[in-house]
């Protein structure tokens, strides 16, 4: 038996560690710390039903007499409430865990919707070209001329008036995902279109056409993989933007209702109590939101630098 046959193949994890991305990640302390913080926040949010001492969705576990208890490091606190309680008597630590999970879910789902719409339009626009390309890109220009928050505020206000507050509150998460997702698709469409315009003139695309492959297969199986690097970078930034958009809309009363707390609705519910002394109701969820968005943006910056070939020449 040959000696080469006895050498085990390296595992996928070892190949990732030895790759350029793996080396860049290990040598970048900011990226490592940001990833650790993001993973910790995500795991705690996903395991909220197991970690949280109280269920903020269960009215039987909420007592209005426990409202506005301060965090445990302030005099007058109740030891069972680590970060204190909000104005409804809910444990703030438990509510933040559930709210972070909800904000992350809205952000990820909204970005997935953005990516599906934007990538599809970008592929079709760049590959087909002509009048269809001009029409789709003019639609993207029109969409980009409007602020995401402005479009979302108008849409959600109209939806709330049409369906009523009760029905709107029940399906608020779907409204938020839809409006944030539809508002930001041009970012993906423009990036993918630029890649398609550069790739469709190359020899491997001509070879695929000669072999009889259809346009859909060429776009999805051959051209799209060359667009993944910028798509990953955009997605990282867009997740942070979607979380901020959700928090802003919830703060304005057009997002998640108080009965389904997200980070934005938590900040909003405690805003009226800042000057009365119960600052923690707004401040602590605000700090969590800032840290979450910051580490996502830092990871996006690192990923952009790693996947940018212009920074690795020479």
UniProtKB/TrEMBL annotation:
Q: Does the keyword Ribonucleoprotein apply?
A: no
**Positions of transmembrane segments:** 30-52, 102-130, 142-162, 168-185, 231-257, 277-300
Question: Boundaries of each ABC transmembrane type-1 domain copy?
Answer: 100-300
GO CC list: plasma membrane
Q: Could you tell me the membrane topology recorded for this protein?
A: Multi-pass membrane protein
Gene Ontology biological process terms from the UniProt entry: transmembrane transport
Tell me which domain of life the UniProt entry assigns to the organism this sequence originates from. Answer: Bacteria
**Record's keyword terms, sorted:** Cell membrane, Membrane, Transmembrane, Transmembrane helix, Transport
Q: Where in the cell is it found?
A: Cell membrane
Q: Give yes or no: UniProt keyword Transmembrane.
A: yes
What's the main place this protein lives? membrane
Question: Which family would the database say this protein is a member of?
Answer: Belongs to the binding-protein-dependent transport system permease family.
Name-wise, this protein is Dipeptide transport system permease protein DppC
Q: Which organism is it from?
A: Pacificibacter marinus
């Amino acid at each position: 038996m040959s000696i080469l046959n006895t050498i085990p193949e390296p595992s996928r994890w070892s190949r990732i560690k030895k790759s350029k991305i793996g080396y860049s990640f290990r040598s970048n302390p900011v990226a490592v710390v940001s990833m650790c913080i993001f993973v910790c926040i995500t795991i705690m949010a996903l395991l909220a039903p197991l970690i949280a001492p109280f269920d903020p969705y269960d009215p039987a576990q909420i007592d209005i007499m426990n409202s506005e208890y301060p965090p445990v490091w302030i005099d007058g606190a109740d030891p069972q409430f680590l970060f204190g309680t909000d104005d409804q008597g809910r444990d703030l630590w438990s509510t933040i865990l559930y709210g972070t999970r909800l904000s992350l879910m809205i952000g990820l789902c909204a970005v997935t919707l953005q990516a599906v719409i934007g990538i599809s339009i970008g592929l079709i626009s760049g590959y087909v070209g002509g009048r269809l390309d001009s029409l789709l890109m003019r639609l993207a220009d029109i969409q980009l001329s409007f602020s995401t928050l402005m479009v979302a505020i108008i849409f959600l206000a109209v939806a709330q008036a049409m369906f009523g507050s009760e029905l709107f509150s029940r399906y608020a998460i779907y409204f938020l995902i839809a409006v944030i997702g539809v508002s930001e698709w041009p970012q993906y469409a423009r990036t993918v279109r630029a890649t398609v315009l550069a790739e469709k003139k190359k020899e491997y695309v001509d070879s695929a056409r000669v072999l009889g492959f259809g346009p859909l297969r060429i776009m999805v199986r051959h051209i799209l993989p060359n667009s993944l690097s910028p798509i990953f970078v955009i997605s990282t930034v867009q997740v942070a933007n979607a979380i901020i958009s959700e928090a802003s809309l919830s703060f304005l009363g057009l997002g998640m209702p108080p009965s389904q707390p997200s980070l934005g609705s938590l900040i909003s519910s405690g805003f009226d109590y800042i000057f009365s002394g119960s600052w923690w109701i707004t401040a602590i969820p605000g700090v969590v939101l800032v840290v979450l968005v910051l580490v996502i943006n830092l990871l996006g910056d690192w990923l952009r630098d790693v996947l940018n070939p212009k920074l690795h020449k020479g």
